[in-house]
Design brief:
6-stranded mixed sheet; single chain; about 230 residues; alpha+beta; 4 helices
Length: about 230
Amino acid sequence: MKSIGMSKIGLVRQRNEDRFYIGDSFCIVTDGMGGYKGGEIASTMVVDTLAADMQRWQDVSADALRQAVAKANMAVYDWVKTTPALEGMGTTAVVAYVTGSDLYWANVGDSRLYVFHEDRLTQISTDHSMVQALYEAGELKADDMLQHPQRNVLTRAVGVGPVVDIDAGVYKVINKAHFRVVSQFQEFIVFTVDADFTINRANQTRVADRFTLLIQATDNGGIQTILRAQ
């Protein structure tokens, strides 16, 4: 695998609460929340806990990813219990692990997994957010999600409770498909199979908020994973 990662704080925020990790066969991105330094701590703890576990894996499954995210969730929750000032902190988490022709994934929060194939971007995961719940209930149109005042409210997050419901699955790799894992639904990057173009475009875009971009591709360019947190 060839990989590259980039994180920018943007023009508005004082801190960057995004974290990412690139392993030989997997990648992780988190987007923290929870007040002063809380989001940074939560996102870092989850990345560190997941990476330490997954680096030792010989086999992978959707259930194994669920258990790993659950362990990271408990690590954050236990830390908060000893540090009351951090109460309410948490993070999104999205993980992608490629083995053979299978892409295993897990997600909590409004991070997303996409598959890009034949010029079509298909969302695999489902957001755990207030606007997603309103959309599924028929109370909000897709075009209105980006402007909704509760667009940043999550219905699930890692670390806010002792147990979290974790989505996970496996996707069969299609030849020359490109996998993109992103955080939040606010798109400003033009997605492309050209990694250099994507990074250059991100650098040239004066986005107000912070963002993280990670690209992971096979040697022949057949599989590409992009993680973005904003």
